[in-house]
Amino acid sequence: MPYGDNVRKQIDLLGARGRIQAVDMHDVMQARSEELASIDLAVREEVTRLWASNRFTHRRDLVRALRQGTETTAISAAFIELNKRGGLDGVDVAALLREADEILEERADRTAFEYAVLLTKLRELDVLGRAFPHAVRGTVHPKPGQYSPRIKDDATRISPWHGVAIEHLDGRIVTEYEAFVYQDFEQYEAVFVAGDEAPFFYRRRGTPSASA
User: Fold this and answer.
1) Domain around 207
2) Residue 21 backbone zone (phi > 0: left; psi -120 to 50: alpha; other: beta)
3) Which residues contact 180 (CB under 8 A, 6 or more apart)?
4) Model pTM?
5) What phi and psi, each to the nearest 5 degrees, are found at residue 72?
6) I want to staple 16 with a disulfide (CB 3.0 to 4.6 A). Which of 20, 75, 154, 183 is the partner?
7) What mean pLDDT is reported for the chain?
8) How many other C-beta atoms can be found within 10 angstroms of the C-beta atom of residue 177?
9) What percent of the chain lies above the pLDDT cut of 70?
């Protein structure tokens, strides 16, 4: 199901149609496409200069965050096939891991650069401010001028959108990589939203809500 359709579905399930509106950022940018294109070269030159000098604020943080969302299907499949083969004789596993790490880093760095260019253009033209002049902006990343509700437990070490929520026996909800669940899958129960193929969250077996 396309992302936009799913968002609208969730709004309907909340009974909030008419009170919550989903706006596609692509449409907002399309309305200013000529202006965005007109400053693209200048912005790229400036970001490239800062990127090369390592003076781009939070560059490492941005690359690390985007690395977590980098497509790794081909790399994962290669390692799975090696495992299925039943032996690693003659395979330089350390070299393979280094190569995979370099590929991920290169992709994440390139994506982070493009993202930095886009954010700079949006800020220079005040695209969101002009599209929603009276809005109070919220974000999951605290920054000046925006509120950031705390949406994770203190024990969480990864961003909520990079993992899955796990309800523990004491009621805490902590975000973990889904691999954490797979390592001890008999201890967890998957909870689904009607119509979704993937679990909405996981519940530690034995929690009160699990037996309700």
Assistant:
1) 160-211
2) beta
3) 163, 166
4) 0.69
5) -125, 20
6) 20
7) 85
8) 14
9) 93
Q: What are 85's two structure tokens? A: 């083969």
Q: Is the pLDDT of residue 211 over 70?
A: no
Q: In which element (H, E) is residue 134 found?
A: none
Q: Give the pLDDT confidence of 146-204 residue by residue, as tens digits.
A: 887 766 677 777 777 778 889 999 988 888 888 889 888 899 999 998 777 888 899 99
**Residue 162, both tokens:** 């990079």
Question: Do the Cβ atoms of 205 and 189 come closer than 8 Å?
Answer: yes
Whether residue 200 is contained in a domain is answered as yes
Domain count, the chain: 1
Taking each continuous run of H as one helix and of E as one strand, the counts in the chain are: 10, 4
* Helices of type H across the chain: 3-13, 25-30, 33-38, 40-52, 59-68, 73-84, 93-124, 127-131, 178-182, 208-211
Domain membership flag for residue 164:
yes
Residue 202 lies in a domain: yes
Please write the tens of the pLDDT for every residue from 77-121. 877 777 777 777 777 878 888 988 999 899 999 999 999 999 999
Q: Are 119 and 56 in contact (CB under 8 A)?
A: no
Phi, psi of 54 (to 5 degrees): 60, 25
